[in-house]
Amino acid sequence: MTTCGPVTIECVTGNIAQQPDVEAIVNAANAELRMGGGVAGAIHRAAGPGLEEECRPLAPIRPGEAVITGGHRLPNRYVIHCLGPVYGRDRPEAELLASCYRRALELAESKHIRSIAFPAISCGVFGYPMEEGARVALHTVWEMAPTLRHVRLIRFVLFHPEDQQRFQRILEEISESSRRT
Questions:
Q1: Which of 22, 42, 51, 166 matches a 20 to 30 Å C-alpha distance to 177?
Q2: Residue 110: CB partners within 8 Å, gap ≥ 6?
Q3: With b meaning 16 or more CB within 10 Å and e meaning fewer, what string describes 83-109?
Q4: Is residue 7 within a helix (H) or strand (E), and if so which, with residue range?
């Protein structure tokens, strides 16, 4: 756990669909905002069919874009759906990935959301290397944190302990680097 201005940033191991103490979770969505594998599948299964129904008129979205829906049967008030880039296909990958995190935080701010949980967007079936994806995600969030008026907790929820450790290490590097400047 690290603070950047008024915002706490933490990295945990867990299931993004089981974060009852945050107002919004982020879905690593597909363009049609439908149930898929990985994060999208876990969130849609936990939320129930109402989520896909609410998503239908919002689709399709393009890489780097985000939309917001209700949480349905999830313990979270909101789900923010981001379409991350497919690594090696959607370019420029880093800019599109950073846009996902920025747009999700902008939507959270617009709804006065105080806590949000992110998965490692694009780092699963979309093929983004975990180390690179973590750096883009954490740098983007770190840069935005001081400007946030409502969001006070940003949590990264990683499925595997080694991914959580990687995110934590990079977060500590960014924090240490910013203290030196």
A1: 22
A2: none
A3: bbbbbeebeebbebbbbbbbbbbebbb
A4: strand 7-13
Which of 91, 94, 76, 81 has its CA nearest to residue 21?
A: 76
3-class DSSP assignment, residue 27: strand
pLDDT in tens, 18-57: 999 999 999 999 999 999 888 999 999 999 999 999 999 9
How confident is the model over 50-91, as pLDDT tens digits? 999 999 999 999 999 999 999 999 999 999 999 999 999 999
Coil, helix or strand at residue 65: coil
- pTM for this prediction: 0.97
The dihedral built from the CA positions of residue 98, 124, 174 and 17, taken in this order, carries a sign that is: positive
Classify the C-alpha dihedral 81-116-25-179 as positive or negative. positive
d(C-alpha 19, C-alpha 117), whole Å: 8
Compute the distance between CA of residue 146 and CA of residue 9 in angstroms, rounded to an integer: 12
